[in-house]
Automatic annotation (TrEMBL):
It comes from Marseilla massiliensis. This is Glycoside hydrolase family 3 C-terminal domain-containing protein. Belongs to the glycosyl hydrolase 3 family. Residues 689-757 form the Fibronectin type III-like domain. One of its GO terms (molecular function) is beta-glucosidase activity. Keywords: Hydrolase. One of its GO terms (biological process) is carbohydrate metabolic process. The keyword Hydrolase applies. It comes from the Bacteria.
Amino acid sequence: MRLVFKILIAMFCINMTCGATTLEQRVDRLYNSMSLAERVAQLRSVYMSELFMPDGKIDEAKCKKLIPYGIGHVSQFAMDLGKSPNEQRDMVAQLQKWLIENTPNHIPALVHEEVLSGVNALDATVYPQQIGMACTFNTELAEKKTRLSAAALRAMGGTLALSPMVDVVRDPSFNRLEESYGEDGYLSAAMGVAFVKGLQMGGNLHEGVAACTKHFLGYGGGANASEKELMEDILLPHEAIIRLAGSQVVMTGYHAFNGTKCVANKWLQQDLLRKYVGFNGLTVSDYGSIPQIDESLSPLELCAVAMNAGNEVDFPTGEVYVNIPEALEKGLISEDVVEKAVKHVLMLKAKLGLLDNTARLYSDGHIEFDTDEERATSYHLAAQSIVLLKNGNIGSDNKPILPLTAEKLSRLGGRVFLTGPNANSMWALAGDYTFQAMHYFWKGKEESPLRPKYVFLKEGMEQKMPQGGSLLYSRGCDWTDVPETIMEKGGDPRVAEQKIIDNRMVDSHEPADWDEALRMARQCDVIVAAMGENVMLSGENRDRTKLTLPGRQEEYVNALVATGKPVVLVVFGGRAQVISDLAKKCAAVLQAWYPGEEGGNAVADILFGNVSPSGKLCVSYPAVELHEPVCYNYGLEKDSRIAWPFGYGLSYTSFEYSDMQIDRQVATTAEAFGLSVNVKNTGNVYADEVVQIYVSPIDSESRLKPIQLQGFARVSLKAGEKQTVRFRLFPEQLGYYDGGQWNIAPGRYMVKVAASSQDIRQEQEIVLTGKHHVKKLREHYLSEVVK
């Protein structure tokens, strides 16, 4: 999208550009011209709704009262306003114009929003939630998605995205698991790097928007990890994204790390983030996390603790950082601390082009959201995110139940019964941090599923039903009859204001007639049961006490199975759910996650065989209730607690791996080594395969984890086609952290080509030769696919 911007900031010539030749000089000059009140304002934020009248016109009296010295940031403007893209852009334009014309140094604000599964805005494209994105193992399409999101956000005037979340989550029950890329540090790093490269337009911040990686560090279980696991796995996505993609902003988490809240943790923010990783960008608090440091501290003390620890911006309003002048006066913080923080804000604005004479602040003309290209991208990601967990054989020919092709439906009888709470609902598709989910959870307001258009599973199946097939539908059961979530203590403080949250459930707007549904099921030939979670059962501050299907859903599926008709179970939600007993009884099982606006089309295409499933699990799928850390790389042996392993996913075809080639001896100091393998589609349908590379130690003295993902490639193959897939790997990928440095030790290692972490197809030994080699930091984090 070409952005054409209106505002010419002529007054910047006086303060910004005369004689300045570098961004640093421009920032220094601007900083020196600012009063203390202006500097403090750059470390604070405001909600745009506080500054506007109901008719969408800026309230100049409020602006003069609330932001007379300017403002550094605008918080969640699209979710806050809930307007059309053009209306939101017009309001941003009014605010930026007011700041430029009415504040001492004419500095525009950084306007931020969430872009986790697309821009958190009315009408914006809704992509699959991140846990589903990770199952695509498709970094190229992930990068394209965030390029589209960046263009959409920039058009409205947004310049900072509070995304991605790259927490390595090892707790299957974590309420925000859906926002993550799952349990593996390498996969999280690869997907996160792609996310940030797309969002920041490959480093062209004048066109892209700044990324904010979160939550630093160890949210979702990693804070209690050993030093080795912390540095090798939990830190890896943040480190790789900062060093490979140049992420501009880092947000700390709500949680405590080694007994100290992250936002007040100096070791995390200064020793680890800045000194070790080398981050030189901006650090920001999560919303309302500073007051949660210690309830016994005064706002003045909280201000000093957070700033001295290294936190630079107070989100969402800066209510604590209003105390900066007093903290300076009393010597609780130094001028140097304030200077560094303010200059990091100004530098980010400079990199984004906001301090240029012709600043790019918003687009001109009509803004079109949810374009054909965006919808197509959302569809392809959804189709690639869905994981086929089981595909059992039925009938006299003993063939798999899926896909339900015209021929197969004809043999079965042709009548398909669709049922379940997620069969005809937006809440099967929209994960947390989409506009609809945010408005429903935070504001209790249900938005239309037409802005953008959500394709429910029922609609998708109706439109794509093969010739000769017919669809019957009855909801059958609801998600749950009683509230099943508890309000998590801590986290976003706005939750504490929602006293009714524990009594709120999603309204399905249609009856759930159990008896009617079972009568219809008996009349049909195959049953598709769409079960799982919804926005009130999965997400931030929504803790469920168990991982089985909510409410009476399991009982309902068992009743469907008892009809004697084959049941295809489709599970939606933000995390893997305990369905092992049901899976044994069902003919097939699909894990669909929250697949976004095109989810109904994507699931239908897989059910009917228009697309072969290709998603691979980004988590170890539990067979039993698990409320403790679990990860495939803890050991080589199959864990009886796990139903389906990391990297697992079935297809409608089969793949043969052969002729693995690898450099057999490589020096510890070598630049790289090569690997290739042949992959052949041995079935009769076009399909994608995700080729996975794992490494394991052979020598007992090696400090390498028992098994670790170190590469992957998505390959598209016609029936009978064979391709050679080539990788470039690096000795550092066989290294380990110890003694404050990265170690590459000589010895023997096994490199494995696999279809999952438990399905090794080819393996060969490699020997690292030479001396023990050490580095403070890795230079290479991710293997490369050689085209």
